[in-house]
Amino acid sequence: MSEESRRVALRVSYDGTNYSGWQRQENADSVQAQIEKALRALTGRTIGVTGASRTDAGVHALGQTVHFDNPSRIPAERFCYALNTRLPDDIRVTASRSVPEDFHARFSARGKTYRYLVNNSVHGTAMLRNFMAHEPRPLDAARMDAAAKAVIGEHDFAAFAAAGSVAKTTVREIWRADVKREGDVVELWVGGKSFLYNMVRILAGTLMYIGLGKLPPDCLKKALETGDRLDLGITAPARGLTLMEVYYDDHLW
């Protein structure tokens, strides 16, 4: 990083409905591309940004962390205000700050928390349809919660890796996995050091099948032992998933 540049971290929230995901793509719009476009309009320079999580198409975020090297004289704490005047309404920078030059949004992260929401009413919801999956049949949230505990700890999550995953290892550590019901909404919360591609959505889809009685509660434990994707349920729809927070050693936010 040059002497003129200063590393800046952004805390970003977005509704992922209209985007191909976080990562920049050639023929589709992405959250990364929109932030880089806003930075170019603001500074007159082409600036690449790096996100902590490469959220998939249709996935949302409340606590995505992003970093970039700032070649301008704009103070780090002002970027959240300046960028929000240039970003679409479904992307907001909720905080910005200066960080050390060796900070990396992805590699400095110590963990992440995701939330998956399922509307469990007969007719679903019109207002929040982009942020929840819909299951009209009754889900047993207590049964789902008890089953979810099988994934806590360090395990080989090979069975939870979607096709196309390029992870060097499928071993991951999960420290939180719980399910609760709030009225018609069933919530899955998952926290861990890192996640495989589609891992949380596969877990959510499997727990939904467990809650419906279509899979036995011990299928998660069995899949961890066998590494067989066929022991698990569906990959739940992207719209129910939100990246809630990314954690760093210095309590960044």
Verbal overview:
The protein has helices spanning about 30-45, 80-85, 140-150, 200-210, 220-225, and strands at about 5-15, 50, 60-70, 90-100, 110-120, 135, 155, 170-180, 185-190, 240-245. With about 250 residues, the protein is α+β, with helices and mostly antiparallel strands. The mean pLDDT is about 95. Strand 2 (about 50) and strand 3 (about 60-70) form a beta hairpin. It is globular, with a radius of gyration of 19 Å.
Strand content is 25-35%
| Apparent shape | globular
**Through-space gap between termini:** 23 Å
Query: What value does the Rg take, in angstroms?
Result: 19 Å
> What is the mean pLDDT?
95
Q: Helical stretch count?
A: 5
Descriptive key words:
alpha+beta; 253 residues; single chain
